[in-house]
């Protein structure tokens, strides 16, 4: 039986999925109904996109949250979409119950990489309101290329009859799940929970995913939260120490969003440092979303100044040094923004460039409210931008850059110009040239 206290995804996914009749039955517990509409100080909503190779770790995260659960001072809700069948669910988690008794809705499968699914989860969580809201998005992240992956592993069980054993008759199982879903939806509608408007921006949006401390990505999130929590580098599969974070919230229900953001950063860093034999490159940063547009604008103005003085030898020399020496996130192609600007500022440059460097660094100090990162001159600072070596450049970035918020698309064109300068005669016939030309042609048409 799925959705119980044991992890069904460990040590590996079943070659043949054996479903039980209980996997098609659920109901909303009376205590969860009674808690609907009752505001607490905090509402926590965890959105776990686990139909991928992170299923076992994200299910452990779900159980960590459940171990603390909802109670006086906070509601804890979660949407979990796993790689099996009937393991997609929305639940209000409680510490003293089997997981299946926490379910509010249950499905065969969901598309957790779709905006509509996230919208559904946010609407449902609004039925258990909080004066402050923490929303967590857990799964795969890859900076400007996107957040949350649904690999539809569950479809392999659905489409291949030899991969799934159903209780017989299968039609009865289908009918049971459909009836339970209709009954739950009817109950929620009677409480007005299915027609709730999307809540206002949340207090904290935490991205439990790799490489999401990427300015091209988080620029799209402006307006969704007051505070953004992101990881510039790899986020280990274990993710946040959810039990510790929720215990902190349970023990301090009057904690402010800014204080909680700082605690999450500190608790996460301390948790990984304490793991024996491991010193992972954890980079956690909490940003004031309201300060992000000013930071982005300052950076754009710096790029514009670099374009203006691009042909000056001392500017090109400074750029080469900054590109080559700034901290990078492994082979991902992401470069630390603050490190890049700091290295530019070391050089004697035309006055406008120096002034814009100072402006970027000043905006950085106003934007960052908490940070935990490895120490050292070559350590990352918490926010990256795409700047791989020319041979590693993904030409899709040029086209995608047209959609970047806050005019950050200018960086793609500046980057292309710098690469062409560095490639010299080798630029003829380079894929980068074709990508630029194709994008220009699209704009003209």
Q: What's the assembly state of these chains?
A: single chain
Major beta sheet summary: 9 strands, mixed
**Which consecutive residue ranges, at least 5 long each, have pLDDT under 50?**
none
Q: Could you say which structural class the secondary elements and strand pairing correspond to?
A: alpha/beta
The value of Rg in angstroms is 24 Å
Total helices: the number is: 15
* Overall pLDDT: 91
What are the secondary-structure elements, in order, as H or E? EHEHEEEHEHEHEHEHHEHHEHHEEHHH
What level of helicity do the residues show? 40-55%
Q: End-to-end distance, in Å?
A: 56 Å
Number of domains: 3
Describe the global form: globular
Task: Report the β-strand fraction as a percent range.
Answer: 15-25%
Q: Tell me the number of strands.
A: 13
Strand order of the largest sheet: 5-4-3-2-6-8-9-10-12
Layout of helices and strands:
Elements lengths: L16 E2 L11 H6 L4 E10 L5 H14 L5 E8 L6 E5 L10 E5 L7 H11 L4 E9 L15 H6 L4 E2 L4 H21 L11 E7 L6 H4 L6 E7 L10 H10 L5 H17 L10 E5 L3 H17 L4 H13 L8 E3 H9 L5 H17 E5 L11 E3 L9 H5 L9 H14 L7 H14 L1
Helix pairs in contact: 2-7, 7-8, 9-12, 10-11, 11-12
Protein name: Clostripain
Q: What this model shows, in words?
A:
It is a single chain. By secondary structure, the chain is an alpha/beta fold. The protein folds into three domains: 17-282, no CATH class; 290-368 and 375-387, no CATH class; 391-445. Helices cover 40% and strands 16% of the residues. It contains 15 helices and 13 strands. The strands form three sheets. A nine-stranded mixed β-sheet has the order 5-4-3-2-6-8-9-10-12, sandwiched between helices. A hairpin with a 6-residue loop joins β3 and β4 (88-92). The relative contact order is 0.11. The model has no long low-confidence stretch (mean pLDDT 91).
